[in-house]
Specification:
Pfam families: Peptidase_S24. The protein is α+β, with helices and mostly antiparallel strands. The protein folds into two domains: about 80 residues, lambda repressor-like DNA-binding domains (434 Repressor (Amino-terminal Domain), Orthogonal Bundle); about 140 residues, Umud Fragment, subunit A (Ribbon). Helix content is about 30%, strand content about 25%. Strands 1, 2, 3, 4, 5, 6, 7, 8, 9, 10 and 11 form an eleven-stranded mixed β-sheet that branches.
C-alpha cells in the first residue's frame, strides 16, 4: 500500500509544483534563508507554510496575496505565474548553489546549507528552476574563467539526445555533480564525460543531465551577485 507521503506526491499537479517553486524563489529573494525563518517573521503557521512551499498543500489566491505582500511579489505571478514577478521591475533572483572547478576531478562542490546564500538574477529565458554555479580556478578556461557564473535549469531529468556533444551539468550514480562534455557511451544507458584538462571518464551512469543556459563572465558576475538578506 502506498504511503501517505507518496499518495500526496501523486496528487500534485504541475500547476501546484510551479506555484510552490515560485513561493520558494520569492522567499529566498526576499532574504529569508529558510521556510522556518519566513514563517516566524510573519507569524504564519510553520507547518502550513512549509507544506505550501514544498507543494504538499497548494495555497489559495488569498494566501498568495499575503505571501506576495510579505515577499514583494505580485500575487498573480505567485499563484499562476502570470506576468512579471514584481511591479517595480526588480529582477527575480536565484541561488548560487555551488562551486565548479575547485576540485582536481572537476566535481561540483555543492553548498550544504542556506546560511550565507549568494543570489544572482534569473538569466534571459530562465525559469523558477534556474540555479547557478560559480567557477573557481582556471580548470575551465576556454569555457568559463575564474569567477564566472554557469546557469542551468535544476529539473533533474535524464539526458536527452540533443545534449550529446554539449557541455552540460550532470549527476552520476555515485553522487558526483560534474560539468562535462557528454558523449555517447559504449552501450545503452551509459555515457562518456570529457573534460577540458582531465582524462575522459568512460561509460558512466547518470541520474540526470541539464543544459547550460547561460555563462556570465567574472566582471559582470561580481556586479550582479548579492547575498540573501542584503
Amino acid at each position: 500500500m502506498a504511503s501517505a507521503e507518496s499518495r500526496g506526491t501523486a496528487r500534485r499537479s504541475p500547476d501546484d509544483l510551479g506555484r510552490s517553486e515560485r513561493l520558494r524563489r520569492a522567499r529566498i529573494d526576499a532574504g529569508f534563508a529558510s521556510a522556518l525563518a519566513a514563517a516566524e517573521a510573519h507569524g504564519w503557521n510553520r507547518n502550513t507554510y512549509k507544506s505550501n512551499e514544498n507543494g504538499n498543500a497548494p495555497f489559495s489566491y488569498r494566501m498568495a496575496e499575503a505571501y506576495g505582500a510579505a515577499f514583494g511579489v505580485r500575487p498573480e505571478w505567485l499563484y499562476a505565474g502570470t506576468g512579471a514577478a514584481r511591479e517595480d521591475g526588480r529582477a527575480a533572483m536565484v541561488p548560487i548553489i555551488g562551486r565548479v572547478g575547485a576540485n582536481p576531478d572537476g566535481s561540483v562542490l555543492l553548498s550544504t546549507g542556506q546560511e550565507g546564500l549568494e543570489l544572482t538574477p534569473v538569466p534571459p529565458g530562465g525559469s523558477g528552476k534556474a540555479v547557478a554555479l560559480r567557477v573557481v580556478g582556471e580548470s575551465m578556461r576556454g569555457l568559463a574563467d575564474d569567477g564566472a557564473l554557469i546557469y542551468f535549469e535544476d529539473q533533474r531529468t535524464p539526458p536527452t539526445p540533443d545534449m550529446l556533444g554539449q557541455v552540460v551539468v550532470v549527476e552520476t550514480d555515485t553522487d558526483e555533480v560534474l560539468v562535462k562534455r557528454l558523449v555517447r557511451g559504449s552501450k545503452a544507458g551509459v555515457y562518456s564525460l570529457e573534460s577540458l584538462d582531465a582524462p575522459v571518464r568512460a561509460d558512466v551512469r547518470l541520474r540526470w543531465a541539464a543544459h547550460i543556459t547561460a555563462i556570465v563572465p567574472p566582471f559582470h558576475a561580481r556586479r550582479i551577485t548579492t547575498w540573501a538578506g542584503a
